[in-house]
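Handoff note, outgoing to incoming analyst
You'll be picking up this chain. Sequence as last confirmed:
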Amino acid sequence: MENSKAPYFRRWGEISFILAAIFTTMGVALMTKANFGLSMIVAPAYIISEVSDILTFGMSEYIIQAILLATLFVIIKRVEWRYALSFLSAIIYGAILDFFIIIFNSNNVPDELWVRILLYIVGLLASDFGVALYFNSYLPPCAYDLFVREASRHLHIKMTKFKIAYDWSSLAVALILSLLFFRRLHGIGIGTIVCAAVNGPLIGLFSKLMYRFIDFSPRISKLHSLIAVSSDIDAEKQKDCSSSQ
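Most recent structure output, in case you need it:
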């Protein structure tokens, strides 16, 4: 910790994970309500939920993440139980996302442009703040981040390059699904471009601010010893966190 002063919030290893799930899902739900377009990472799941009578946004999210985990196991040629825990994170994420979607859809929010812009900005900031918290918790992140980190390591590709390739692949899938089912752009728009431009810098900024005030050491040491990945991977994760989403 570069700051000589003791952080205000101590032993937030587990609390940060809970808050991360809340902030990221609330942010995505707000951006969905704003209807300017979602980030290229979550856009495919949103489009699938829009054309399905069964799958919710949250359910589509963890189905896609399950596919990513299965792909990761193929790449690393084994099933790693610690990685599989990311699917549990995905289910938690999906359930909270659906909760916020229901909450925001049940309220009659004015459809004026300035209201939508405000919803988008608040959602974007909340989502990026949550991602920064995810990166600083030792608990398993959602499969999106895990897939990029571990697949790039095993394929010996620089994480930032792999992340860019994955992001644009997600955008391509979203475009194909959007044009296939809606014959127009749906879930993709100016907001998607804004996300691509500012997510990395914002996540990096939030992480730097967190280091000043939050101690991310575990409160439950036994849980940490069971779940936490090796320190060299943690160091790499924090170094590259500004490239996420």
